[in-house]
Amino acid sequence: MKALPDPPYATGTTRTKHGTIRTPALMPVVAVSYGVWDLWIDGEYTAPWDLAQATILSLYHVLQYPRAKQVRTRGIHAVLGTSRPVFMDSGGFQYMKKGVELDPMDVLAFQRDSGCDVGITFDFPITLDLDDASRTDRLDRSIKAANLMLEHTGDMALYGAIHGSSPDEIEAYTMRLDKGFSGYGIGSLVPRKAHYDHLVDIMHAARSLTSLPIHAFGITGFPALYALSYLGVDTFDSWTYLVAAAYKEYIDPERLMRVKRLKERSHLPHCDCPVCQEYGLKDFIAPTSEGEALLALHNLHVFLREMSLIREAMDKNELEDYILVKGEHGNRNINRAFRAAERKVKEKKDQYR
């Protein structure tokens, strides 16, 4: 492995056909089979993909969507009404939960037909309950699918999905992938996303192996966002903003924690995001798709604002101080996750002295 620079983080850019993403960046997940998305696709409210630098879809949800044929014939940008970058995940994690698998070449064909900026290889994620033989089989099949898709990807940018439960396994997996991927997406993180030492070990190993863009799948809590940004991870995906809204939970923009039981509250913490300037508590708790959409947009504004502030702190070489201040005034797990990342970086530096 190579030594990381000091400090390990830096803002960067990921270039796509539809524009450049300034990193680190968070991409909202578009689960287009959910009814609330039609409000955004039909232009009734500002859409998440109009707020973020880029967005990401899961093929699992796309194929269940009534407009799936339009995605393939007209293109995903036309269906969403956006000119910004769109990533398309293969849906391997969702299909795993359903006990279904797709032909990797069918996945690639749909991704290419959709006109997405970045496709991600079909994978077979690993879970904590798998025996050794099953884990090995799933890892082997993920690598085989990735290399097959890369061979036929054409001019579409393709990220190779990477899985592993230890730094050594991540390195061994990466060495078996063919050269030519545009970046890498690190999966199988969700079951242990609150185990910060494990998360840091895995993502630090991945970052140390390549200078290409690194994406973390399904890791969207603020503690992890700060810690992994510090480690140099480029992009993240989130639908926490929407899941929280479905449960009528409002993300406090200062404490960065969910405010629950909104119906029992008389007011909300102050927020100066555009949504909160026009709408309020009564709008958010309305038992309608509109109420859920508005609350989700507020939550997304909080995530995107924090990512912008992370980039600003990086440019000033003040990210450590910024993270520690955020941890003092809200979610205490922020400091826990950051300390784990800081220890890992120090440990690696000591090896090169």
Write up what this structure looks like.
By secondary structure, the chain is of the alpha/beta class. It has one domain: TIM Barrel. Helix content is 48%, strand content 14%. The protein has 17 helices and twelve strands. The strands form three sheets. Strands 3-4-5-6-7-8-9-10 form an eight-stranded parallel β-barrel, surrounded by five helices. The protein is globular. The chain starts with 11 loop residues before the first strand and ends with a helix. The mean pLDDT is 91.
Which structural traits does this protein have?
TIM Barrel; two-stranded antiparallel ribbon; single chain; 353 residues; alpha/beta
Q: What topology, given as strand order, has the largest sheet? A: 3-4-5-6-7-8-9-10
**Helical run tally:** 17
Uncertain segments are none
Main beta-sheet strand count, sense and barrel state = 8 strands, parallel, barrel
Structural class comes to alpha/beta
Tally of strands: 12
**Amino- and carboxy-terminal Cα gap:** 15 Å
Beta-strand percentage range:
5-15%
CATH superfamily: Queuine tRNA-ribosyltransferase-like
Compute the number of structural domains.
1
Q: Kindly report the oligomeric state of this protein.
A: single chain
> What order do the helices and strands follow?
EEEHHEHHHEHHEHEHEHEHEHEEHHHHH
Tell me the CATH architecture: Alpha-Beta Barrel
Shape: globular
Q: Approximately how much helix is present in the residues?
A: 40-55%
Task: Indicate the radius of gyration in whole angstroms.
Answer: 20 Å
Q: Would you tell me which CATH topology applies?
A: TIM Barrel
Average predicted confidence as pLDDT: 91
Assigned CATH class:
Alpha Beta
